[in-house]
Amino acid sequence: MQITLIGAGFCGSILAAELLRQGGPETRVTLVGQPETFGRGVAYGGARPEHLLNVRAKDLGADVQAPTGFADALALGERGRLDFLPRLAYGEYLQSHLQQATDGASGFARIEEEAIAVDRVSGGFRVLLANGEDFFSEVVVLTVGALPPQRLAGVGPRLAVDPRYIGWPWQDGAIDRIPPGARLLIVGTGLTMADVALTLRQRDHRGPITALSRHGLLPQAHLEVPGVPLELPPGVHQALRDHDLRTLVRTLRQLSTVVDDWRRVVDALRPHLQPFWRGLDMSARARFLRHLRSHWEAMRHRVAPAVANQLQALKQSGQLRVLSGRLLRARLGVHDVETLIRPRSAESAWVGHFDVVIRATGLDTDIERSSHPLVATLRDSGLLGADPLGLGVDADRHLQLRDRFGTPVTGLYCLGPLLRGQLWEITAVPELRAAARTLATRLLSQQVRAALGASSGGAALRVAG
Length: 465
What we know:
Elements: E1 3-6, H1 10-23, E2 29-33, H2 41-45, H3 69-73, H4 87-102, E3 108-112, E4 115-121, E5 124-129, E6 134-137, E7 139-142, H5 157-160, E8 165-166, E9 184-187, H6 191-202, E10 209-213, H7 234-242, H8 245-256, H9 262-279, H10 282-300, H11 305-316, E11 320-332, E12 337-343, E13 350-354, E14 356-359, H12 373-380, E15 400-402, E16 408-414, H13 420-423, H14 429-464
Parallel strand pairs: 1-2, 1-7, 2-3, 7-16, 8-14, 9-10, 9-14, 10-11
Antiparallel strand pairs: 4-5, 5-6, 11-12, 12-13, 15-16
C-alpha cells in the first residue's frame, strides 16, 4: 500500500520517520513538499538567526520515545537543555532526523514539488503536482501545517498589492525593505509579532511601532528555570471529566491563587485538553473561542525569557506601543497608509497614519477562506469538509477526513494544526509527535489487514479454480 504525505515540514517529516520505524524500510512512503524548506517546514526553515524556539531544548525530540532527542543530538549539558535555542538549529535537527530514518529505506521516495490537487479515483487517489506530473496512492495524509495568511479585513484593494502592506513578513525579504525610520502598524500581538519585533530590533529600526490586537495581550514569558510539575486537584479532574467549561474555569482561577506560579497550572492541563475538547459541544467551544481564547493563548504559547526582555525593553523605551482594538479600515493615503482603529470597548474610532502595515496575526487554519492551492481544490471539490467554527478540517476520531456532507473519506487523513477543530491542542511538538505515532500505527495496521484480505481472496480464487 502506497502512503503519501503532502507537506514536508515538521508533521510530514516525523510521520514519515514513524511509518518507516514501525513498518520497516520497505514500507512504501512518499513525502511531497517544497524544495526550499523540505524536511524543516516554514516555521524552522524560514526562520532567522534571532528567532528563538518557545520550548526548552530538552522537550523537543521528534520521536515520542526519545523526547530529549534534540538536546541529545546537540550533546547539551544540564543548563543547555533548559535553553531556548534558535529555530534554525531545530530545522537542521529535523532534516537530520528525517535523513537518518530514510537512509537505506527502499520504500521511501521524496518529491520536492508542490502538490496542487488530490482526486479520488478507484482504489485511492491521484496526486497532481505543480510540474504537471501525477501519481497514484492508496492513502494520502495532509501534513501541510498552517495555511498561508489571508488578507486583513478592512485592507483596501490598492493597499493589498502595495509594498506598504506586508501580508507575510518573512516572504521575499519584505521586512528587509522597511526604511529604518518608518512608522509601523503591526496587526497581531502574539508570537509572530514578537518575531517581527526582534527582527526589527536586530536591524536597528528607529521608527515607532504600534502593535494592535483585539485584547492587546502580549505572549507571557517562560521562567528561566521550569517549575516543579503540578498535580491537579480532584475538583479540576472532575470538571475535565464532566466537560464542564464554566466549572473548569472557576476551579482553575481558585487554584491559581494558591499555586506559586500559574505556569504550572497551564502545563499540568495540557495532557487533559484533547479529551476535554472532544467532549465539549459546539456552543461551549464557541464560548471558549469568543471569551477565553486570547487569554489562554497568551499564557499557553509563551516566549523565551530573552524574547520577553527585548519586548519589554521596546515598550519601556516608548518605541513599542501595544493597543487593544480593531482595525476597521486601512487604505493608501496621499503620502502614507491611513487607518481607522476602534479601541476596545469604545464607540468611536480614531484615524492613524503609518508608513507600513504588517499582518502578524499568526496561525491560520480556516479552510473556507484559504487560497492554499491544494486545500482550496479539495474544499471546492467537496472532498474536504470544514470545521463549523473555522478551526480547520472536519475529521473523525481516527484523523480521517470527512467530506462536505460529513461522510468519512476512506484513505484520506490529516495531521497537524488543521485538526484544531477536533483536538484544539495540536500545534506543539509533544502533541504532534504523539499523534504521529498513533496515526502511523493505524495506517500500518490497515495495510496489514488489506494484505491479509488480498491473500485470503487469492487463496479462495485458487481453490475455486
